[in-house]
Amino acid sequence: MDNQNTDLISLVCKLHDTGALAPREYRLLLLSDDTEAVSALHEEAAAVSRKYFGNRIYVRGLLEISNICRNDCLYCGIRKSNLNIRRYSLTDAEIIACCDKAYQAGFRTFVLQGGEHPESASEHIERLCRTIHGRFPDCAITLSLGEYSDDAYRRFRAAGADRYLLRHETYNPRHYARLHPAEMSRAHRLHCLDVLKGLGFQTGTGIMAGSPFQTADDIVEDILYIGKLKPQMIGIGPFIPHADTVFAGWWKDGPGIIPGMSRKETAMEITLRLISVFRLMFPKALIPATTALSTISSSGREAGILAGANVVMPNITPHHVRQDYSLYDGKVSDGAESAEGMDSLCSLLGNIGYCITWDKGDYGSCIV
Ligand code: SAM
């Protein structure tokens, strides 16, 4: 074992023991080409996850309620200026029918995700939360619907929403401006996260790993920000290009930030390293193996779990619109990524020594 190897493994131990590293040390872990140290990072993180959650993986039903979006994020397939997709919004009756079906299958968390609608939609969302909460009082409602006013978030919470997912996408202002149009505000997104936490939502944030122009220093800023925010949920997924965006050719345009790796390989690799880093920083956090991870690699979900993830989110969206929620090319929404594929999901997880739990899985409901 050479010196660098020993040093990196000692960083993994330090992160495990203290829950934090210096910025320079995070950078070393992110960019290392030392496979032994990276394996140690994943093994340590998976061991922490098993200590707190056993071999149980939480399932959440992901319901993509609308692909209509008022925003124009440069990386996203459902950005408003993409005219090549068929837009949809599920009716309340369709949403309730999906929840009914998912409930019967065993799901106890519904994640309502969609493009961002104007503030005026907040009353509708509030009513929807109230209806779902009234019909399924033993279930958690997670919203992932973007930025609203403080008052709207307060009303969503009062109407029964328990959790809110809002990735900050990137903490660095320069990087934020390269991914978003000028009218979108990084400051407002960060404000929303503070408000959501203050309202008592179990709050999730995160980033896309390998997003265009992202540097290792940007990611270190994201780690430090998440370290301060202390969210209950942390969603890290690889950036995957979408053909109808300006970043369509991103993977072909140059190397990734990890020496010797392509941009695609880097997106996957950084995702897994960050899952492990956040598991060591936040042993009790809810960290999904995301759909994007399963899309970038057929073994991505299992790799995410073996790196410390403890949540999967099978798709419960109606089939007739599933293909229209196209955030990136090739997004998987069937097989083990779907409510219909639970047997296959169980057997894939069984192969690596894990099993699903239907438990609602609120933050803090770990075994230690
Ligand atoms: N409108 C809500 C919001 O802004 O949080 C939720 C929907 S948004 C499409 C959900 C997440 O998809 C974003 O936070 C972003 O990180 C991810 N996403 C969008 N485009 C992506 C891409 N090309 N590759 C990977 N993830 C992407």
List keywords for this structure.
368 residues, alpha/beta, TIM Barrel, 6-stranded parallel sheet, 3-stranded parallel sheet, 14 helices, binds S-adenosylmethionine
Structure description:
By secondary structure, this protein is of the alpha/beta class. 44% of the residues lie in helices and 12% in strands. The protein has 14 helices and 9 strands. The protein has a 6-stranded parallel β-sheet. The protein has a 3-stranded parallel β-sheet with strand order 8-1-9, covered by helices on one side. α1 (3-18) packs parallel to α3, α2 (23-31) crosses α9 and α3 packs across α10. The longest helix has 19 residues, at 35-53. The two termini are 34 Å apart. The structure holds S-adenosylmethionine (SAM). The site of S-adenosylmethionine (SAM) has 20 residues, from loops.
Number of helices, counting only DSSP H or I runs of 4 residues or more: 14
Report Rg. 19 Å
Question: What is the CATH first-level class name?
Answer: Alpha Beta
**Overall mean confidence score, pLDDT:** 97
Helix content: 40-55%
Structural class: alpha/beta
Low-confidence stretches at least 5 residues in length (pLDDT < 50)?
Answer: none
Bound molecules: S-adenosylmethionine
The largest pleated sheet is described as: 6 strands, parallel
The total number of structural domains is: 1
SSE succession:
HHHEEHEHEHEHHEHEHHHEHHE
Proportion of strand residues = 5-15%
Shape: globular
Spatially, the strands of the biggest sheet line up as: 2-3-4-5-6-7
How many strands appear in the DSSP assignment? 9
